[in-house]
Write a structure and sequence with these properties.
The chain is of the alpha/beta class and 423 residues long. It is 45% helix and 15% strand. The two termini are 43 Å apart.
Length: 423
C-alpha cells in the first residue's frame, strides 16, 4: 500500500491536479470495474471463438507480454519494439494493454501475430488460459524487472501451467526508476526468485547487469540483448511536416541547437545543461516528461537559451531531433546510469547527428559517441561535435552502428536463447 501511495504522489507531481484525476479515474476503471466484463460473461462462446482463431495462426511459440507498459504510450520503447520484432519472427505475442493508453477492453489485432490483450479482464483471461492448454507449442510469459504488478505467486501459476519465464533485466533495481519511495515487494521478490533459479530465461541490456546475473546464477539461459533502434523508421520523413511556432522561433534565432529527449529525472544533470546554455553559443532544447520533482527543483524555466518543450509523440519526435545540430545525453553518473543502455543513443545514430554523452559505461562501447568525463570536457566535446556534422566518414560510422543495433537483432538474441531448449 505504501508503494501505491508514493506512486500516486509521483503521478500528481508529474501531471498536476486535473491530469492526476484523469489517471486515477482510468486506473480505478481498469483495475476494478473492467475486471468483470459483462460482454465476455454473456458471450463466452464468441470470445472463445475469437481466441481460437488467434491461436490457430501460423507461428512457432506463444509469448505473453505481462507488464503495465501500454502499447500506445507517446514514447515507443523497448517493450513495443521487442514485441513487434518477436511477432515478425514467428512468435504469437499477446501484449498486455493498459486502459489508460490503449482503450482495449478485450483483445485487438495490431499486426500479424501481434495482439493487444486485456489481461485484467478476468473472464477473458480464463478463456485464454483454457485455450492455450490445447496448443502443443512452447509458451512463455515475459516481463520487465521493473514490473511491480505481477507477484512471484503469479509467475508460479504460469510455471505450473507449462510456461517458460523470460525476465528482462533492463535497469538497476531502484525506487527512483519504480517511481516510489521504497522498492515495491513484487519487484524485489521477483528479482530474488530469478537470481536463485537458473531455469528462468534472463535477458540483460547492459554489462553490469550481466555481471550481476553471472555472479548469482552463472550463464545458463542468459541472453545479452541491448536496446536498439528501428533503423528504417528513422530514414523516412514527410516533406509536408511543419513545426509549431514555439520550436520554429528557436530555429529562427539561428543558434546551433543542442537537443535531448527523454525523461527529466533525478539522474539528469541539470547543472550541466545550465552550463551549456550559459555559454551563450547554443540553444539547448529539452523534450520529454517530468518523471519526478527534480526538474522543478533545479530549473526555473527562465534560464536564457534553455528551452523545455514537453513531450512529443514517437511518430514526430524524430523531426525535432533531426533539426538539431548535436544530440546529447547529459546524465549524472550513478548506479542507475552505470547500468543504463539508452535507447536514444541508437536513435541518435540513426538520425545521423553527432552524439555527446556523459561517461556512461554502455556509451563507451560505441566509437561514434563522444564522451565528456566532466562538465568542462563535455563542453569541449560539444564544440568538437559541431565540427563533425558534415564529416562523411563520421556520418558513415553513425549509420553503420545504427544498422548493427536494429531491434530485429535484439529480438533475435532472445529467440536464439529460448529456441535452444525447444523441441
Amino acid at each position: 500500500m505504501n508503494e501505491k501511495l508514493s506512486k500516486l504522489v509521483n503521478v500528481y507531481r508529474k501531471n498536476g491536479f486535473l491530469g492526476f484525476c484523469r489517471k486515477l479515474h482510468a486506473y480505478i476503471v481498469a483495475n476494478y470495474f473492467n475486471k468483470v466484463s459483462l460482454d465476455v460473461i454473456l458471450r463466452p462462446d464468441f470470445y472463445r471463438s475469437e481466441i481460437q482463431k488467434m491461436l490457430d495462426a501460423d507461428y512457432d511459440r506463444v509469448v505473453l507480454w505481462r507488464s503495465s507498459f501500454g502499447y500506445h504510450v507517446p514514447l515507443f520503447q523497448r517493450p513495443q519494439h521487442i514485441s513487434s520484432n518477436l511477432a515478425k519472427n514467428r512468435c504469437l505475442v499477446l501484449y498486455e494493454v493498459t486502459t489508460m493508453t490503449d482503450k482495449v477492453k478485450t483483445l485487438q489485432k495490431h499486426s500479424e501475430n501481434l495482439w493487444l490483450f486485456n489481461f485484467n479482464n478476468l473472464a477473458l483471461s480464463r478463456i485464454l488460459m483454457e485455450e492455450l492448454g490445447r496448443i502443443p507449442k512452447p509458451r512463455y510469459v515475459q516481463l520487465y524487472s521493473t514490473d511491480w504488478k505481477l507477484s512471484v505467486q503469479d509467475i508460479g501459476m504460469y510455471l505450473r501451467g507449462g510456461f517458460g519465464f523470460i525476465y528482462e533485466y533492463i535497469d538497476h533495481i531502484s525506487p527512483e526508476l519504480a517511481g516510489t519511495k521504497t522498492l515495491p515487494v513484487n519487484i524485489t521478490d521477483k528479482y530474488d526468485y530469478v537470481m536463485s533459479c537458473d531455469d528462468v530465461y534472463v535477458v540483460v541490456t547492459a554489462d553490469l547487469l550481466a555481471q550481476d546475473v553471472i555472479s548469482k546464477r552463472g550463464t545458463r539461459r542468459l541472453a545479452r540483448s541491448s536496446n536498439g533502434v528501428d533503423y528504417a523508421f528513422f530514414q523516412t520523413y514527410d516533406a509536408n511536416f511543419r513545426f509549431e511556432p514555439e520550436f520554429q522561433q528557436i530555429l529562427d534565432r539561428g543558434k546551433p541547437i543542442i537537443c535531448y529527449y527523454g525523461a527529466l529525472a533525478k539522474w539528469f544533470d541539470y547543472d550541466l545543461v545550465k552550463k551549456i546554455a550559459a555559454t551563450g553559443k547554443y540553444s539547448v532544447v529539452l523534450f520529454g516528461i517530468k518523471y519526478d520533482e527534480s526538474f522543478d527543483e533545479n530549473l526555473t524555466g527562465m534560464e536564457e537559451d534553455l528551452y523545455f518543450l514537453g513531450p512529443r509523440d514517437y511518430q514526430v519526435l524524430k523531426y525535432y531531433a533531426r533539426a538539431a545540430d548535436v544530440l546529447m545525453i547529459p546524465f549524472q553518473i550513478s548506479d542507475i546510469t552505470r547500468s543504463t543502455n539508452p535507447v536514444k543513443v541508437f536513435e541518435y545514430m540513426a538520425l545521423h547527428k553527432p552524439i555527446v554523452t556523459t561517461d556512461m559505461n554502455e556509451c563507451r562501447k560505441y566509437s561514434s559517441v563522444l564522451i565528456g568525463t566532466d562538465h568542462d570536457s563535455f563542453l569541449q566535446k560539444l564544440d568538437e561535435a559541431m565540427t563533425m556534422r558534415d564529416d562523411p566518414e563520421y556520418l558513415a560510422l553513425l549509420d553503420a552502428q545504427a544498422r548493427e543495433n536494429d531491434w530485429s537483432h535484439k529480438a533475435q538474441a532472445i529467440i536464439d536463447m529460448i529456441r535452444a531448449d525447444e523441441p
